[in-house]
Amino acid sequence: xxxxxxxxxxxxxxxxxxxxxxxxxxxxxxxxxxxxxxxxxxxxxxxxxxxxxxxxxxxxxxxxxxxxxxxxxxxxxxxxxxxxxxxxxxxxxxxxxxxxxxxxxxxxxxxxxxxxxxxxxxxxxxxxxxxxxxxxxxxxxxxxxxxxxxxxxxxxxxxxxxxxxxxxxxxxxxxxxxxxxxxxxxxxxxxxxxxxxxxxxxxxxxxxxxxxxxxxxxxxxxxxxxxxxxxxxxxxxxxxxxxxxxxxxxxxxxxxxxxxxxxxxxxxxxxxxxxxxxxxxxx
Length: 283
Fold this sequence. Notes:
Distance between the termini: 63 Å
CATH topology of the largest domain: 2-enoyl-CoA Hydratase, Chain A, domain 1
Radius of gyration: 22 Å
Mean pLDDT: 86
Low-confidence stretches: none
CATH class of the largest domain: Alpha Beta
Number of strands: 14
Number of domains: 2
Largest sheet: 6 strands, mixed
Shape: globular
Order of helices and strands: HHHEHEEEHEEHEEEHEEEEEH
CATH superfamily of the largest domain: 2-enoyl-CoA Hydratase, Chain A, domain 1
CATH architecture of the largest domain: Alpha-Beta Complex
C-alpha cells in the first residue's frame, strides 16, 4: 500500500481531480488493482464520526425475538424438507438473550424434518461468535472440533473457534442432508459458516461463488481530511485446509445461478433420498 501511495503521489492526473467523491472512486480503483484486494476502498464522507460499537440496549427478550424473526424465514417444504433463510447471523450475547424463544418459534419447527436447506444468498452481516453456534447444531457434541482460527490484527491475537459441547435445544445431527445456498452477495460471517461446514464434509454448497469478504472490517480516517479507507483487519484460516475463503470466496459444490439454487437443492435432496432404493433394486 505504501508503494501504491508513492506511485499515486506523482500522478498529476489524480491530483487534478477536483470532485472529492470522484477522487475517492479513482483511488479505490487504483488501490484494488495494485494490491489485488477488492475489499479495500476509499470513501469521501464529510461529517462522518467514527463511533465505538454501542452496547446492546436493554430490550425485552420477546421484542428482540420479534426483531430477529423479521430477518429469518422458516418453511417446511414438500418432502419434509426444512427451509431456513437467514439475513443476519446473531452472536453469543444475542443468542443467550433470545435463545429459548428462537427455539420455540424457529428451531423446533425445523428439527423434525428429514433434510434442511440453509439459505445464505442474502446473508451479508453477522457476529463472529455466532459461527460456533450454527456449526455445532450440525455436528456431534464429542469430540470437539476446531472450526476456525481468526487472527485479529488490531489486537494481535488469534482466536480459535471450537464446536460447542452443549447447546440450547437439540442438535440437527450429522446424518440428515444439509444444503447451503449461496450467491455472489453472500458475505462475511455467512461465508465462514459455509466454508467450515463444507470442509467438515457436513454440507453441500449450491449456488454461486460467494463475495470473498472478511470477518472484520475497519474504517480509518486519512489524516485531517474527510477521506476514509476501509480495510479488513482480521483473517480467517481454516484448520482443515490451511487456507482462507477471503478475497476468493467460497466455491459451490454445485454451480448454479442464485435464483435457481433452491430448485437445484430440492432436486438434489430428492435424488439422494432415492439412492438407497435404487441401490437395492440394482443389487
